[in-house]
Amino acid sequence: DTGVSQDPRHKITKRGQNVTFRCDPISEHNRLYWYRQTLGQGPEFLTYFQNEAQLEKSRLLSDRFSAERPKGSFSTLEIQRTEQGDSAMYLCASSSFPWGGGGKDTQYFGPGTRLTVL
Amino acid sequence: AQSVTQPDIHITVSEGASLELRCNYSYGATPYLFWYVQSPGQGLQLLLKYFSGDTLVQGIKGFEAEFKRSQSSFNLRKPSVHWSDAAEYFCAVGPNAGGTSYGKLTFGQGTILTVHP
């Protein structure tokens, strides 16, 4: 299977602990996106990378959140000092962004990481 | 700022009945439009997308959607629903201009579809 993969699928942690999630995009996809989805809501954009460059961050992404994509392949999302409000599904998506194609970008999503903060 | 409204939080249909899920968007121009489906505890699967051209778009699993500029709508339809279609459906819009904003999707709240046998 060459789809987007995320690890772990589930994470339970105690308030105040740090957690890190990993996303492996579809091979050779140049863009990688992170979204957060809370219960009963649609996904909300957090941040995205074009290769290894982080191009945009949502104001939802407080200074406790950091994301990296060091070699333009996989990405990690770290949450420091977790709070109960961080409990959500964290979704990763990737795309092959067509430069010069008018931004006709199609994102493919991974299965998500479900975070529960106790 | 772009926004998406899915007016129906929950829809129930009988297996074999037709289906229409509504989606309205707010955007300064014609956006890029998507429908995704999500099964419980899973990620999102792309059903179909609209970038330009023919306003009736065919997708996977027998779904189609029609873009109506005058109504700022992109409703999803299926002529005959199967029990396996029970899931949550999300409409999303993406900007068709704006440099680094390309690709940043805004999702609706979702519509949960229940299928009765």
Could you give the topology of this structure?
The complex is a heterodimer of chains A (118) and B (117).
Chain A: E1 5-7, E2 10-13, E3 19-24, E4 31-37, E5 44-50, E6 53-57, E7 65-68, E8 75-79, E9 88-95, E10 108-109, E11 113-117
Parallel strand pairs in A: 2-11
Antiparallel strand pairs in A: 1-3, 3-8, 4-5, 4-9, 5-6, 7-8, 9-10, 9-11
Chain B: E1 3-5, E2 10-14, E3 19-21, E4 24-26, E5 32-38, E6 44-50, E7 56-58, E8 64-68, E9 73-78, E10 87-94, E11 106-107, E12 111-116
Provide key terms for this protein.
heterodimer, A: 118 residues, mainly beta, seven-stranded mixed beta sheet, four-stranded antiparallel beta sheet, 0% helix, 47% strand, globular, B: 117 residues, 12 strands
Series of secondary-structure elements of chain A, N-terminal to C-terminal: EEEEEEEEEEE
Shape of chain B: globular
Average pLDDT score of chain B? 92
Q: What's the total count of β strands of chain B?
A: 12
In round numbers, the mean pLDDT of chain A is 92
Assembly annotation: heterodimer
Main β sheet profile of chain A: 7 strands, mixed
End-to-end Cα distance of chain B: 41 Å
Run of helices and strands of chain B: EEEEEEEEEEEE
Structural class of chain B: mainly beta
Strand content of chain A: over 45%
| Secondary-structure content class of chain A | mainly beta
Low-confidence stretches of chain B: none
Runs of chain A in which pLDDT lies below 50 for 5 or more consecutive residues are none
Number of helices of chain A: 0
Strand content of chain B: over 45%
